[in-house]
């Protein structure tokens, strides 16, 4: 069968139109996905679009925890809150309470980190993220981490904060996400704080329904997710869990999380918790 020149031109035009339509559909889908991701990026309205603007907004929040630094971090060492030890690495942890990966990091590394912290082998810089509130039906992330910040601010013993975090990341406590989310009451969260050793007055204030640090947490979200030094290699955005060592993002090895962490901070496993052994980093 012979195809005429006119038919070939018609087929070519149809092909070009088909490609153009597919390209438009892909563009529309990409825009929709971007808008969806942007809406869920933060609970704040008119979220800043630049890192500097977000940092300025964070610093201008009226009610914020004095214990936190201007990047939204809460520093802990063997000497307590805000007392950085010189000549040891600072481990930064960016966590979200609904994040399954954060729970995995907590369950795997927290005992090691706690031993190193108590021995003065590291400083710990905690950053509380709440940008996955939309994955629960009752602002679980904000409630859980507003309480964490309150405990840090009201209770001088960091062990109580660290114990609370370990408890809410426990496999038999952390709820699922989206359709798998199950309602977690304030009373259930309060019990995790009490079990960690926080006193009743502090816990009651943490769950009094005022959520006094909500705006600060959301502003910290907006700033943190715009910091490119926290992005994983090859990715164009922030995700949790993120761990830094001396302000440099640590590339986790999921196959040997604990071993790769100790290598990154420069300690052998038998040196963990030994005050005379300093990280070789």
From TrEMBL:
UniProt-listed Pfam families: Thioredoxin_4
Statement: the UniProt record of this protein carries the keyword Oxidoreductase: no
Domain of life of the native organism: Bacteria
Sequence intervals crossing the membrane: 12-34
SUPFAM superfamilies: Thioredoxin-like (SSF52833)
InterPro entries: Thioredoxin-like_fold, Thioredoxin-like_sf
Protein name (Swiss-Prot/TrEMBL): Thioredoxin domain-containing protein
Organism classification: Bacteria, Bacillati, Actinomycetota, Actinomycetes, Bifidobacteriales
